[in-house]
Amino acid sequence: MRIVIDAMGGDHAPECNVDGAWSAAMEWKDTQIVLVGDQAKIEPLLKAKGTAVPDNLTVHHASEVIDGDDEPVKAVRRKKDASMVVAGRMLKEKQADAMISSGNTGALMTTGLLVVGRMEGIERPALAPMIPTLDGVGVLALDLGANMDAKPEHLAQYALMGSLYREKVMGISKPRVGLLNVGTEPGKGNELTKLTFPLIEQLPIHFVGNVEARDIMDGTCDVLVCDGFAGNILLKSIEGTAGAMFKILKEQFSQSLKSKIGAALLLPQLKGIKEKMDYSEHGGAPLLGLSSLVIKGHGSSDANAVKNAVRQTRIALQSHLVENISKEISGK
Amino acid sequence: MRIVIDAMGGDHAPECNVDGAWSAAMEWKDTQIVLVGDQAKIEPLLKAKGTAVPDNLTVHHASEVIDGDDEPVKAVRRKKDASMVVAGRMLKEKQADAMISSGNTGALMTTGLLVVGRMEGIERPALAPMIPTLDGVGVLALDLGANMDAKPEHLAQYALMGSLYREKVMGISKPRVGLLNVGTEPGKGNELTKLTFPLIEQLPIHFVGNVEARDIMDGTCDVLVCDGFAGNILLKSIEGTAGAMFKILKEQFSQSLKSKIGAALLLPQLKGIKEKMDYSEHGGAPLLGLSSLVIKGHGSSDANAVKNAVRQTRIALQSHLVENISKEISGK
């Protein structure tokens, strides 16, 4: 297994990527890990470790970096030697089996489309992060931002890909697949969801029908299918509401001495809730529908998150995720 | 001013409607209030008050009732003598100036469209409830469920109507109007929002541009424009997340004696937060774009909520809301 890591992507790059890659290389000796990025910045970090660099960890130089505020398409087209683009090219040229990047999300989706390339039969790849649920398990939601104007056929492919990912990589047998909608009855929704429903119904997956936004956190499904626009509204509403509630809690709890004491007594519980609501705790998000595996790490990934992304990528490769999706989509 | 109240609509009908109408009639002597519904059920409630029925409160008999689980279009078409439909007809026939109903939302929107009728120049009326914000002021969001497949022209009309409502009825001068979108930059979004943006820009309102779902609770705008599908996802995500967080709070706070004591000390604050997050605290939702004023009360309305809906309706009538919208839309 050969996994490339975009060493320059993410808020804590390159340190977190180097440290995470190092730990991963130490743990999984059967995996070749390549750090792609500025050699002058990466090498000193490796040297600082004080011991010999693991045999299965190498550096591939790339002179440019795509920043968080770069315009995605322009950046990918112009910065031909950016770490993210070089990593994508290595995937395309079969020098690697999978790539991980915690960099600019839009640029990574563009790299996926323009550099790595789509899987045959897939018109629009999808970004599939986890949304938190009350039971701590989470739901895989796709598409979350790659495809703003989805067609029913795209959503049906998302259902299939999401189900396979949840089964093969996350070990859930017969994942419950739901369609994000405004009501649970089959006839509900806008034109897109009304046309999508019968298409998903015909697929060889466990379709549980329409799911309302308010029921998602109760864990009513394992895979949630939606277009990129609605998915973005959903994810950011959850994020915004949780954030707002924490703000109010903080404000209210410092109102009086009595409430301050109460809050102090509840500190461990309040921390636990914050963690439960934090969807960034749930690992990297796959970009599904590409010719090779691409995993998007969170922008705020630390070394541990990078190592976990490698763990996730290994399972996906071992379970032949891409080949399985390809077989279902185009029969090849 | 003549206001009809659908006496049979809502979870606590007809009691709450009778009590609310009574209080409103007592407070506002210049307002004629008509309770529409089953006389055999309404009269005993009025008699039970023990004092003479106010002169400005009358009953108009209607033999049928539309239930919460009735299929909206069928119910409105078939139950010609349903309290909601009769109230709508009184509006159409100019026997009343406005109507209030806390009944089946879909049926009320259908009554608005098929019985009351649209305003000239409006293709799709919009339901405009309030969404809670951190500062307790709330944002008027439209459309929240009436129009699943909106066109850019519809959204532009929502922007205009919402701005007028917020100004005339809620007393906000130059309301800040935002467009629900996946990013704040003007070029962001799906086809619908991309085409809508320049249309709203040309309107004589205070357009603050795109607003992300996560920023809404911070009160970044006074009016939020969205299509019915995205609006439903937004509202129900907020509802679901707030509900989920209260569940986790409850669960976590009863974990140990220490946390139980903490929670007891914080009880008043926790209640305050629950109220802040409860969008049903924000009064009735107008159905904008009809030829007369229709206000949707919450299904769970109590007598006080019904009285508040009358207050809101009075302000809307006094400020000539419908005439003002009509002037802006069609120049008439």
From TrEMBL, chains A, B:
Transmembrane segments: none annotated. GO terms for biological process: fatty acid biosynthetic process; phospholipid biosynthetic process. This is Phosphate acyltransferase. Signal peptide: none annotated. It comes from Paenibacillus pini JCM 16418. GO terms for molecular function: phosphate:acyl-[acyl carrier protein] acyltransferase activity. It is found in: Cytoplasm. InterPro entries: FA_synthesis, Phospholipid_synth_PlsX-like. Its main location: cytoplasm. Catalyzes the reversible formation of acyl-phosphate (acyl-PO(4)) from acyl-[acyl-carrier-protein] (acyl-ACP). This enzyme utilizes acyl-ACP as fatty acyl donor, but not acyl-CoA. Pathway: Lipid metabolism; phospholipid metabolism. It catalyses: a fatty acyl-[ACP] + phosphate = an acyl phosphate + holo-[ACP]. The lineage of its organism: Bacteria, Bacillati, Bacillota, Bacilli, Bacillales. Pfam families: FA_synthesis. HAMAP family: PlsX. Its EC number is 2.3.1.274. Keywords: Acyltransferase, Cytoplasm, Lipid biosynthesis, Lipid metabolism, Phospholipid biosynthesis, Phospholipid metabolism, Transferase. Homodimer. Probably interacts with PlsY. It comes from the Bacteria. The keyword Hydrolase does not apply. GO terms for cellular component: cytoplasm. Belongs to the PlsX family.
